[in-house]
Amino acid sequence: MRSSTSQQGCPGTLAGRRDAAAGRLRVHTLGFDGILDTVLECIGSVCPATRSVVRQSIDTGLIGSARYSDQTESTNRDAIAELQHPLSPPILPRLHLTDHQTAGRGRLGNRWQSAPMALTLTLTTKVDPANPASGILSLAVGVAVARAIEFVCAPCRIALKWPNDLCSGWLVDPAGRERHFQKLGGILIESTAPRRDVAVIGIGLNLEHVPSLRDGSATPPGSLSGLTGRPVHRPELLAAVLESLSQAVEELFDDPGPLMTEYRSRCLLIGSTVTLRQNATVVQGRCTGISDDGALEILCDGRRRTFRSGEVSQVRPG
């Protein structure tokens, strides 16, 4: 992770673009508080530490605007609703943040209800749909969030379950007999017509409490505080996630190779026996890897097959 200290950047670099963005905001407002009033909409009372993180993220150009609500059904749904009103387009990248989400969605139409005071957010940002790297955006986001968690919660190690569940590494039960892992959070990326050049990136992380799992996953839920044995400061993690997302998206569209290498190093499935459910089809075999375009590779019945969708319901370590 980069230092949060502001540094002057050269034009064309990420730091340079942030300086330019912050400069443009200052030109059009009458000071820092004016910037925040212009681009941050609050529904409810946002804590001072979170407000400070959003303030700094806008000033450095990590995000262009933000909307906070103490409770909402779904931050992704809120973001998509905004995009469907072209007469008042949001300033991108746009952050949606809530303290409590009551009707969150997971992949394949599954549901997820966040635990109280989880880190629940959606980042709406522009992408290039013509770039093949857009097809592995969800994997890049998984790597980005894993990096952010490790930065804040060191020395923990975050693993990924294809395609982008955020998990603990393999754990051993108290009796030392059974290995398992816990789901710490998830990612859902959506798009909406007519804005195919915009990605709606939803992220949910369990900080202190373990939620009721409603997404059909067989992976038991866990929390970051349970994994680390100490409280997790939500504003600090929010800042790290926003910084890491910006960096990973830039890496993805510059050269996705290193990101995919890191993704594979974090993937729990490689080398394990997995059960994949794809509609009415159930496939069981050994996961041999993740292809460059993000597909899951499974060796079953002596034949290597690739899958670009589906739900991994069971994992047994190799």
Morphology: globular
CATH domain topology of the largest domain: BirA Bifunctional Protein, domain 2
Percent range for β-strand residues = 25-35%
The tally of domains stands at 2
Provide a count of the helices: 8
What percent of residues adopt helix (DSSP H or I)? Answer: 25-40%
Instruction: Tell me what the CATH architecture of the largest domain is.
Output: 2-Layer Sandwich
- By CATH reckoning, the class of the largest domain would read Alpha Beta
Corresponding CATH superfamily of the largest domain:
Bira Bifunctional Protein, Domain 2
Ends: how far apart?
A: 32 Å
Number of strands: 17
- If you average the pLDDT, what whole number results? 83
| Cα-based radius of gyration, to the nearest Å | 20 Å
Structural class: alpha+beta
Order of helices and strands: HHEHEHEEEEHEEEEEEHHHEEEEE
Query: Would you identify the regions where 5 or more consecutive residues have pLDDT less than 50?
Result: 3-37
Oligomer state of the chains in this structure: single chain
Largest sheet: 8 strands, mixed
Biggest β-sheet: strands ordered side by side in the sheet = 1-2-3-6-12-11-8-7
Give an overview in words.
The chain has 318 residues and is an alpha+beta fold. It folds into two domains: 14-266, BirA Bifunctional Protein, domain 2, CATH 3.30.930; 273-316, SH3 type barrels (Roll), CATH 2.30.30.100. The protein has helices spanning 14-27, 32-39, 48-59, 75-83, 137-152, 224-228, 234-254, 256-266; strands at residues 40-43, 65-72, 94-101, 104-105, 111-112, 119-126, 158-161, 165-168, 171-172, 179-180, 183-192, 195-205, 273-278, 281-290, 296-300, 303-307, 311-316. Strand 15 and strand 16 (303-307) form a beta hairpin. The protein is globular, with a radius of gyration of 20 Å. Residues 3-37 have low confidence and may be disordered.
